[in-house]
Amino acid sequence: MLNIKNLTVSYQKDRILNALNIEFKAGEIHGILGMNGAGKSTFFNSICGLKSIDSGECLYQNEWVNSDHISFMQTHTYFYPYMKGIEYLQLIGKQNPTFDPHHWNQIFELPLNQLVENYSTGMKKKLVFIGVLAQDRPILILDEPFNGVDIESNEKIIQILDYLRKKGRSILLSSHIIHSLTDCCDKVSYLKNGVFARTYLQEDFNELQILVKELVRQDVADVLDALD
């Protein structure tokens, strides 16, 4: 279990995350939903040690979480110049001698012998996802994994995540698109104003969808009303 206790994070004088408390269980896919700028990436970066925190704890099995516990897929990934897809996967998976990049690539059919710089955005996303699988760690954290990926590949990613969930992995993923999460998650936590306003179970997903639609409708209505 990944246990987040009183996590507080600021940027300059602005409080981004405000004393967050939440648990992520093994064998579950847990979505983090929030509008752009809600703090989803800050939350993930803080767990992974890439963002300094003001206070709080991020614990896995009662010890401070570290890179041996987590495979992290960031929204944007840097690739070395002139690196081929297969070289990237060999580099990422070098600590897992049982990992076979060609086996997983049967699903996505990426041109692994081509330079990554010639890949499309969606192809790069799928390459990084295979790299996450290569690390074979108990916690997967995926920041906007469906962005820029075609519908068919989205479904493939969802099937793989479901397979890993059944294997006991703890999977966290974020999106600002609600259907991306309700299609695959056991729970979805709504991040707003630096706190988790509520965690929704699958039976509550319709209620969550109604809430988000109403928030968006009101924002648009306010702007349109100002035109009259």
From TrEMBL:
Residues 2-218 form the ABC transporter domain. Signal peptide: none annotated. It holds the Pfam family ABC_tran. One of its GO terms (molecular function) is ATP hydrolysis activity. Keywords: ATP-binding, Nucleotide-binding, Transport. This is ABC transporter domain-containing protein. It comes from uncultured Aureispira sp.
